[in-house]
Fold this sequence. Notes:
The structure is a single chain. The chain is built from 13 helices and 14 strands. By secondary structure, the chain is an alpha/beta fold. The strands form three sheets. It has a five-stranded parallel sheet with strand order 3-2-1-4-5, with helices on both faces. Strands 10-9-8-13-14 form a five-stranded antiparallel sheet, covered by helices on one side. The protein folds into two domains: 3-62 and 89-170, HUPs (Rossmann fold, 3-Layer(aba) Sandwich), CATH 3.40.50.620; 180-291 and 330-353, Argininosuccinate synthetase, chain A, domain 2, CATH 3.90.1260. Helix 3 (63-77) packs across helix 4 (88-107). The protein binds arginine (ARG). The site of arginine (ARG) has 12 residues, from helix 4, strand 6 and strand 7. Arginine (ARG) binds at residues 89-90, 120-122, 174-176, 183-185, 269.
Amino acid sequence: MNKIVLAYSGGLDTSCAVKWLIDKYGYEVICFCAFIGEVSDKKILARRAKAAGASKIYIEDLKEEFARDFIIPALWAHARYEGKYLMATSLGRPLIAKHLVDVAHKEKAKYVAHGCTGKGNDQVRIEVGIRSLDASLKIIAPLREWEFATREEEIEYAHKHNIPISVTQKNVYSLDKNIWGIAIEAGILEDPWVEPPEDAYVMTRPPSEAPARPTHVTIDFEKGVPVRLNGKKMALVPMIEKLNEIAGEYGVGRVDQIENRVVGIKSREIYEAPAGTVLMAAHEELESMIFDREYLHYKRLISERYAELVYYGLWFTTLKEALDAFIARHQDRVTGAIRLKLDKGHVIPSGRKSPNALYSESLATYSTGDTFDRTKAEGFIKLWGLPYEKTVGGKV
Ligand code: ARG
């Protein structure tokens, strides 16, 4: 019997997929389930997968790896797709692809499967990820192939085959959540004129209902990595989780976006990334204290490009890795502290310090102690503006 490794979430789609892969192709189905957000009950998951017909299930808590190898590079890159989306979902896919390939190798399986729809970006990310790592694996996407046109038909199929599913609360929206944020789409959100109803949001309070008094958070970075929150040493995952709580309370990190999907369509999605929004603002702020103008301006171009590569599913690629190396090159200087004010949906850097700062108060000051030599300004301006003088030929 041919083995297939299925990226399994325990939800309706992948539960039906287990049974469908057995019936349609006669595979032996091995499930692989990764935790990169909330940790579900492993026993329940395993029981469900087995009841659907899986021969075996791998369940792995990958939050640390996700934070270290995916979130940190994206944080350093200041990666926001089309200037807004912090890409929680996009970043999780290559991680899942990598582990799916690992399990397939361990099991000597030649087939892998996933539960992504045929209309989204995630199928692209998972499949390109898999193929970049092992192009010999054959990929099956049940949701692109199967006969079910609606959720109801899937539920009927599940009932008919005694596949355990929980369809207690009918989800109005399609959600995808991990520690870096949540993506929310479908339902009424498909009308781009409709303001997202409050019940669509999961991780944040409405900014208008945030505490009346602002709060401050201080984040210490060492070599680019956030290591202390409000003076307390914390590992990355707990820090992100704690910041999700704090910033979520203040309504920080909401985005409502029309985005350009890889598969050519525009879609409307809302996002929440409370911790990510705070950490990225902090990291950007610290870099602006430390690096010179040319580097900072050039890096903005890299950020844009980097975000595209992540969004497009091109994680395991030469250019993405080269950009990682470029960005990592000077992170050893990114040490210092940033204080930010959280105030009704806003995150406003309000204090910064770094032993590596290029900022110099004595150069910047308008008060006593000024070391800036203003006598040189006149000559500088003359040469700087020379190419644009009418007499030289700078005609516009
Ligand atoms: N549009 C986002 C992306 O491509 C999220 C996709 C998943 N969204 C969801 N609500 N299930 O990264």
